[in-house]
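Tokens help. Consider this.
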Amino acid sequence: MSDSRVGATLTYAGTAKPPTTAVVPVDSAGLVLALDVPAGVALSRAALTVQAPGDDLTVDLTPVAALTTNLGKSTLGTDKVQWLSLDWNARRPLMSLELQPKSTTQKGRLSVAEGGPWYPPTPSDTVPIGSVVPLPGLFASRLLVEFVDAASATPVGTPKTLVDTPLTSVVVRAAARPPDLSAMLGAGALFFHQAMPLLPRQELVLGDALSSALQRAWPPELKGGALNVTLRSSGLGMLERVQLTLDTLAVAQTWSGGEAAVSLPVATDGQAAGLVAVPPDRALSEVRFAVRYQPKDERLPLAPQPPETPPLSHRCGSGYSAAQAFSTPGPAEALVGLDLHVRPLTRSVKALLSLYADAHDRPGDVPLMAAPVELVLEEKGPPPWKARWVSFEPLKPVALTSETWWAVLTVTEGDLLWSLSPPLTGSAAARSLVPGLALYRTDAAGPWLPRDTSLTAGQAPGTSWACARPRLHATASAPPPAPGVQLRWGTRVLDVSPSEDGSVALDAKALAALTPPGGTGSAPPLEVLVRSRVAGVVTLSGLRVTSPRSETYALFPRK
């Protein structure tokens, strides 16, 4: 599975220089958060945390403020002025004022405004020129300085006569925290606005608003793409921390081959597996799929499970043949196929399977089908070859009119072993098919002899039977059993029960036992296993597998 981590980078789009490397600027140019969303990732929640600096960090408002003097000029030079005003168009907490050059004959009378009339900012009437005047947290969007005679002894608050004063520079410093903050998506879809200035060292969290905005703009159909979130302030401000948290879901909606639906063959008493690529290091939060099974029109009355290397076997070939009896105590049945558990001893094996009615507890001379079924085995790899199930398919169903009938295997070329199975446990009366004697003979005209396993297997004589799976025609009264469904992830296996329509829906609680396999090797896929006693075709569709991921991005400072 491709990496499901969303990429996140922070870029300042303006030209302002931060006063220290510990802060990042934000102003009307924008602080841009770029997200690179990979395909197959959905968003659950997002949160963006920004932190303002303390008031010990300030910025100079003079370069961005509109300066006006009584002379109608917007700059200071060699002229003497009676008053000046500065307008920076944003409510800021002022921290200090400095007027140059130093003067002992004039003072400055201050007035401030926040979009309305001027008013005196402090109980004092005037401030000195040529020194740094503290203005601790005084909020204003405009500042007016009127110059008066320093020797004037008129009472505080009475009108003063303005005097011409030489002035070369003015510096107004404000707390560096942003005066306001707006967040927008893409080209300008505003989704958040903080109208008031941030407090000293305040942490502001954009949670629900950011989540809703990103979810609306998230790439459709989980195709992946790019998203931009822009932070803006009406005036220059600084942020000392910008952190993003994303809770996402890696969503798998296709099987390992890229298909939305897969159809898989299931062998008799076998299984099929649909594979899903999922991250190996995270728990699953949701698994959904649909199972539709189309079985063959047959049922399996016997389902022996022989070991990979059976301890006892019939040897067939080189003059040896084998026969196995079956009894059908109930109504007449129709045989649609027969599977034998065999192991080739030669690279090439040719064999014939015939069915006969019983004659005195031996295969009789009356065949139950028009012609024997041929089988050809060709082994590719080096010996020894493993034992396995081999299917014989008659051209049409064979009516089992005799209560006891025989399956006879004759090898015409090569040699093989037909596995012998231990006796069945349980009541034979409850079975619709019961295995009987296992016989063999050493030549085509020789007598049929019972296989005595008492000396080698410790069983009663005649109790072992040649391992076979007769497949009978399924009737309306005895339909094939429903297949079993499991989820397997690494070594963990979870049984699941599809609903009547074949759908499976599991949440995180139901999937708790299916823990991530972890490890450093190749990631094991999530497997949907469908097991059935009856061969058929299983179709898996409607897949949705989600794996949650929580990621924290230290965008600034970058750790």
